[in-house]
Amino acid sequence: MSISLTLVSAVALAPAALVQTPVVIYAPVRSVADQQISLWSWGSGVISQTDEMAYEGVYSLRVSTKNYFQGGGFDMGKPVDLSKEFADKFNLVRVILRVPDQSTVMGGGGGAGSIGGGGVNQAGGGSRGGSGLAGGEAGAAGGPPASGGQSSAADTTLKNVRMIVTTTDGLRSEVYVPITTSGAGERGWRFVAIPLQAIKGFDRTNKTVKAVSFSGDAIATFYLGDIRIINDSTPIHGEPNYRDLNLALGDEIEFRANGFAGSSVLVYRWDFDDKDGVQIDAEGQIVKRKFRKQGKFVITLTIADAFGLKDPYSTKINVTVNP
Fold first, then answer.
1. For burial by CB atoms within 10 Å, which of 208, 223, 245, 284 has the most?
2. What CA–CA distance (Å, rounded) separates 117 from 139?
3. What is the pLDDT of residues 234-269, one digit of tens each?
4. Do 312 and 165 share a structural domain?
5. Which is it for the CA torsion 12, 15, 21, 27, positive or negative?
6. % residues pLDDT > 90 (the chain)
7. What pTM value is reported for the model?
8. Which of these, 228, 226, 223, lies nearest to 111 by C-alpha position?
9. Which of 231, 248, 278 is a domain's end point?
10. What is the pLDDT of residues 116-153, one digit of tens each?
11. DSSP secondary-structure letter at 67?
12. Band of residue 275 on the pLDDT scale cut at 50, 70, 90
């Protein structure tokens, strides 16, 4: 009986022993001063602590950007070693952010102002800001190149965020993240999660992070609500708005899909005819298609991890086009 009780106790304690304390890069429940974080602006961008809105607690970081080479970042008084976390492909940097729209009601006022000025040359792992990696080459997810970092007056819709990570060995790594297909959170906040292994160049560093900076592809302001390392192996699944369609020749249909994969950034690919040899006819969460040929067709929707670390999910839609 005593042996049985000992075994039960061991089993009961096992889950608690496996619980890991999350690695937090920025927490909104404490001020940047309490976290030994120093803010600095990059180019003509601005970063500041604010209580205008918060995902949790009181604070967030407000970043104003004009292009990929103007934004803001922060130095960490206590650098974080992510060597152990890097070994697991399901460990991600989860950034909770919000892009305010016209209906957003701001609360409170500004917090601690930004520190520092414009960026300077990064060559050889120099100081913060500057021109970035290889002139802003595309990120690991095939993200958009920086296109010289120029924005026109019409570029006011933020679609992608650039994140640069600086390690204590003076090296920089970066990733471009599409935010429009990132996971929806609460109260307008979005979950943007990047696998550590997908950050371009991070594998060549000592993986001890001392600074992180952010910019975007448009003239915009966004808020950082929380940054931490999470483990997310949630498989991808999804659902299209149609399963079977009976159409007339010439009908145009709008297809929509919703994918779910924890915090992963997803991409949507559509093959409108499984017999024509074309694998991808359209990309996007919402696409339109006009059916100009009669017959029976099978549409394949594939929802994939933008960084290629999770198995994609595919499903079929049956379409009959009548003469």
1. 223
2. 26
3. 999 999 999 999 999 999 999 999 998 888 889 999
4. no
5. negative
6. 63
7. 0.74
8. 223
9. 231
10. 333 333 333 334 554 444 333 333 344 454 443 444 44
11. B
12. confident
What are 12's two structure tokens?
A: 């009961």
Report the alpha-carbon distance of residue 274 to residue 97 in Å, rounded: 38
Q: How far apart are CA 129 and CA 152, in angstroms?
A: 21
Q: Indicate whether 8 belongs to any domain.
A: no
Among 178, 210, 231, residue at a domain's last position: 231
Q: Which two three-digit tokens encode residue 37? A: 């974080």
Residue with tokens 């152990």: 84
160 Cβ contact partners less than 8 Å away, ≥ 6 residues apart: 143, 144, 176, 177, 178, 179, 216, 217
Question: Could you tell me if residue 109 is inside a domain?
Answer: yes
Spell out the alpha helix ranges (H) of the chain. 2-18, 83-86
Q: Are residues 120 and 134 in the same domain?
A: yes
What's the rounded Cα separation, in Å, for the pair 314 and 173? Answer: 32
Note down the domain range covering 95: 21-231
CATH number of the domain where residue 300 is located: 2.60.40.10
Sign of the Cα pseudo-torsion (154, 148, 119, 95, in order):
positive
310's CB contacts (< 8 A; 6+ apart) are 233, 235, 236, 261, 264, 304
